[in-house]
Amino acid sequence: SEERKKGFTAIIDRRSEKWAAVKLVLNRLNILFTATIQNAYVIKPQGFFQKYSESNFKASLEYSFEVVILNDVGSLYNYVDKTELTPCLGGTLNYDHQDWVQHRTAIDRFSETCRSIASRLVTLKQIFDKTDLSISDNQETEHVLDVHGQMWFDVRDDINNAQMIGNTQLKCMKGADSTDQDTFSLLPISQTSVQDLQALVDIISRVRDKFEQVWERHQSCVLQSLQFTFFEREFVDVKNLFMVAHTKLSNMKELGDSVSSAAKLKKDTETFKEETKDAVENLTELCERGEEMIKNDHCHSHSIEAKCSELQDIHNDLNKKFDERKHNLDKSIEVHESLQQVTKWCNAGVDILASQPLDRFQSAEGAEKALKEIDEFLKKPQGVNLGKLNRMEKTAKELGDEGLLEQVRMTLARISEVTDMMSNREASFKKMVTKRPVQQVAPVAPPTTQTSPQLKSPLASKRKEGTSPLLNLKK
């Protein structure tokens, strides 16, 4: 209190005692109250023989506070006002020592009760902190909360009883009809007792409110731990579903050996993706619940956030695998379509060569007709997609299917073979067309006769300009 900070004044009335008693009191004050005693006023002993011992007493004064020796009570009034002295010292202060002792005893007992309650609260807080929060079922959670709750309720009841006792003692100290505003109208000694007791009552009230919050947080944390246990179980189940789907999808490496088989594999992949929709819905629901728990300041927020992030990564990775699988099958279909088109082209070329009758090799007219068939065939792509054809081998390499790559290379070699056969046949026919006899005619203007230059077949001339799109592939 403010009085303690300012320090106290001790008044020692030993008029009927000896100097030894005075010295004993001063020694006790010097040992026990060195920080709070500012000065001491001693009304010296009045006995006949005591006046001869006064000089010896003064010579031994060595204290941490000032000691003033007074001859009589009247001298005390020069230092202390009568309003601050009790009637036994000629003052007007209404002081009952018995009441003061009772007040201080009550305050000390109440203070001891507060210390005991504080010690129990510390122990209870340690029990809360050491609680194993890896709770696995509702029954275990209820048991933990029942035990801890009863421990807290017992302490809280004691706090409430202590508060009631403290408030009752305050009323007794203030008087039956007094109010809080009347506190400062009390005597200084009673006022100090009331303030000390009121401070203890206020402290224990604040402690109760604060620990009520501790209990609520502990209760919430226990319930949230059970909630987190259920969340973890669902997390493991959902993760396992995605791991199984991921493994199954990783094992789906076949790309098909034809357009139809590749298309079927693509459809199977899409069907499998549809089958994972339930797992995706469970994942989405679990992540949404986790986000809601984080928003509500869950005590396991960091773990929940990490697990939700892990689930999202797994989901994104599976979607990426599905996209890669679909992309590869689309490329496989594209390659097989190109293989079909090229095979059809090669077969058509071979059929043209095989269908040409032998008599065409006997005359220039037959050769020219056969050359025209070859020329028309080579000028048109015959349904072959040249863009896909040009990137067919590169696509097969990217897919990493050795069987498909070998098939592509064999097909490209087949193109070269057919192209070479048609080029050879074309060269033979061109020779026959070029060697065809040309009729000699007389010139109109000059009178003399001369031989006109050898004419070339328009078809042969045209073939020099035209080139089959597939011939570029051979290069």
Automatic annotation (TrEMBL):
Residues spanning the membrane: none
Gene3D superfamilies to which the protein is assigned, alphabetical: 1.20.58.60
Region (Disordered): 434-475
UniProt keyword annotations, A-Z: Guanine-nucleotide releasing factor
Domain of life assignment: Eukaryota
One cellular-component annotation, GO: cytoplasm
Record bears the keyword GTP-binding: no
PROSITE patterns: CRAL_TRIO
UniProt protein name: Guanine nucleotide exchange factor DBS-like isoform X1
